[in-house]
C-alpha cells in the first residue's frame, strides 16, 4: 500500500505522543497524571497486532515503526513500575481502572464472537483473531488515562500534549481510511475497524474540546494561587474532570465541581503525589499493508 499524507501524519503524531510521554517521565521524575494501565493495554494491542513481524515483510518503514512502538511502550511501563524515583511516585489509587476485567476480557469475547460469526470454526485463524482483538482493545485503551486525569484534575503540559497527539493520530487514520476508499482501486472496507476508530476518536472529544479551549485562552486558570508558579512555568494546561461546564466563569476550563472542592481534593496527600523537587525523601505503519487489515 502506498503511503499518503494522512497516514504519515497519523504515524508521526503517534510517535510524537510517545516521545512526549517519555520526555515527561524523564523530566519530572514521576508518573503524576499518567496511567500505566493504558500503557499495558497499548502494549497488548501492539503485541497481538504485530505478530506479522515474524511472518511477513512489508517495508523497512513498516517494520521499524512497529518495533519502535513496542520498545517504547515497554520502556514506559518499566520506568513507571520499576525505575526509581518514578516508581515511588506512581499512585496506584488514582490508576485504579480494572483493565483486565473491563477492557481485556470483554474485547476478547467480542473479538471471538466477531471472528466466529465472520468465518466460522472451519476458517478459524488465530492471528486474524488476535488482530481483531487488538482493534477492539485499542478503541478503549485510553479510558484508564482519561480517568486518571479526571481524578487528578490538573493536566500538565506534556501529559496533555501526549493525550492530544494520541487522539490526533487516530483522527488522521480515520481520514486516511476515507481517502483510501476514494482513491484506491479494489479497496476493501472493514467496518469493525471503522467503528472502533470512530469510537476511539469520540472518546477524545471532550478532552480535545477542553485542551483546545485552554490553549486558545491567553490566561489559563488552574483554580488557585497555589498553582500560579507552576502555571507560569508552563507545567499546567487546564483542569479536567471529564464534564464540561459551559456556563463556568473565571477563565477555568472543563470542571463542574467548583474550584474550592477541586483544590480541597488536591490537598489530600493520598490523591496527589508530590514532586521529587518538593520531597527530599522520596514515571504505522500500524496498519498491515494489505487492504483488509487497516488500522
From TrEMBL:
Coiled coil: none annotated. Residues 265-295 are annotated as: Disordered. The chain crosses the membrane at residues 57-80, 100-117, 129-149, 161-179. It is found in: Endoplasmic reticulum membrane. The keyword Ribonucleoprotein does not apply. Its main location: endoplasmic reticulum. InterPro entries: ER_ret_rcpt. Keywords: Endoplasmic reticulum, ER-Golgi transport, Membrane, Protein transport, Receptor, Transmembrane, Transmembrane helix, Transport. GO terms for molecular function: ER retention sequence binding. One of its GO terms (cellular component) is endoplasmic reticulum membrane. The keyword Disulfide bond does not apply. It is a multi-pass membrane protein. It comes from the Eukaryota. One of its GO terms (biological process) is protein transport. Belongs to the ERD2 family. This is Lumen protein-retaining receptor.
Amino acid at each position: 500500500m502506498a503511503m499518503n499524507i494522512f497516514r504519515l501524519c497519523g504515524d508521526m503524531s503517534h510517535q510524537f505522543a510517545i516521545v512526549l510521554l517519555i520526555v515527561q517521565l524523564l523530566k519530572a521524575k514521576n508518573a503524576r497524571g499518567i496511567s500505566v494501565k493504558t500503557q499495558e493495554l497499548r502494549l497488548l494491542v501492539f503485541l497481538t497486532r504485530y505478530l506479522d513481524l515474524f511472518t511477513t515483510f512489508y517495508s523497512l518503514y513498516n517494520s521499524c515503526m512497529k518495533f519502535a512502538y513496542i520498545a517504547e511502550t515497554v520502556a514506559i511501563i518499566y520506568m513507571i513500575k520499576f525505575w526509581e524515583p518514578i516508581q515511588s511516585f506512581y499512585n496506584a489509587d488514582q490508576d485504579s481502572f480494572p483493565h483486565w476485567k473491563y477492557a481485556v476480557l470483554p474485547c476478547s469475547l467480542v473479538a471471538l464472537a466477531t471472528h466466529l460469526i465472520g468465518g466460522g470454526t472451519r476458517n478459524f485463524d488465530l492471528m486474524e483473531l488476535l488482530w481483531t482483538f487488538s482493534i477492539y482493545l485499542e478503541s478503549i485503551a485510553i479510558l484508564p488515562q482519561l480517568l486518571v486525569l479526571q481524578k487528578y484534575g490538573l493536566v500538565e503540559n506534556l501529559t496533555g500534549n501526549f493525550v492530544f497527539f494520541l487522539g490526533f493520530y487516530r483522527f488522521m487514520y480515520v481520514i486516511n481510511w476515507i481517502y483510501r476508499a476514494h482513491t484506491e482501486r479494489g479497496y476493501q472496507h472493514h467496518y469493525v475497524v471503522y467503528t472502533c476508530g470512530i469510537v476511539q476518536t469520540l472518546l477524545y472529544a471532550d478532552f480535545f474540546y477542553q485542551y483546545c479551549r485552554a490553549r486558545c485562552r491567553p490566561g489559563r486558570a488552574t483554580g488557585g494561587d497555589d498553582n500560579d508558579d507552576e502555571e507560569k512555568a508552563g507545567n499546567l494546561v487546564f483542569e479536567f474532570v471529564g464534564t464540561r461546564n459551559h456556563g463556568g466563569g473565571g477563565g477555568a476550563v472543563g470542571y463542574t465541581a467548583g474550584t474550592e472542592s477541586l483544590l480541597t481534593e488536591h490537598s489530600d496527600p493520598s490523591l496527589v503525589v508530590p514532586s521529587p523537587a518538593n520531597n527530599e525523601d522520596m514515571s504505522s505503519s500500524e496498519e498491515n499493508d494489505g487492504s483488509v487489515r487497516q488500522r
